Amino acid sequence: MGTRIALTHSSGRLRGLEPALVARGYDVVRNPLIETVPLLDGETRDRARGLLSCPWLLFTSPAAVAAWRKLNLPFRGISSKIGVVGDKTAATVQRYGGRVALVADPPTAVGLADTFLTTYPGVHHVGLPQGNRAKPTLQQHLEASGVQTRSVVVYKTETLPWRAGDAEVVVLASPSAFKALPDDVAKRATLVAIGPTTAAAIRQQGLTPVVAARPSVAALLDTIDDLFVSEGE
What we know:
Layout: E1 4-7, H1 17-23, E2 27-30, E3 34-38, H2 42-49, E4 56-59, H3 62-70, E5 81-84, H4 87-95, E6 100-103, H5 109-119, E7 125-131, H6 137-144, E8 148-159, E9 169-172, H7 175-180, H8 183-188, E10 190-193, H9 196-203, E11 210-211, H10 217-230
Helix pairs in contact: 3-4, 5-6
């Protein structure tokens, strides 16, 4: 096929996607557009430690979990229960010895809020370790239902340069990655979104993404293959 596809997510995500695309004959270029950097200063550590007084901690990304760990804050032996946005975040918590009490369904910020509010309606105070670009969606949904929230920024997201040249297809796994994509690339390339949150960020800029049915390697492969079948390649 020879079509150039840029993968903009970090190497730890969507394992197996790159070799599967190469095996299908695509020209694959790995070009992460963002990286997360934990904030390890004393003030951040103290503020994050204060969240342990909350009966619940809600993590919306593996990056937030990793930053919590790098701040030397515990997952074991804490009174706070842990809720997460999806299976990957849950796996990261478990890898560090934590126990996950709630997983969002569907795996979005709104899904986390709705799952939490439905399952634990009597909780009125939660802690939110998050990144500097976190959208207020989760916080707003919780507070609209009377839940008090405390958020602490435990990591920041930095933009990396575009190096994938004239890639015809760009796979995007987060709104932050789309935001980091150069405007000229976004307008000329076919944008493949891993899920509805990323797709919504793309549509807000007046562009039309192709959206995978699920945030999985198999679904992305089907989406990309269908794209070129529909174009007669």
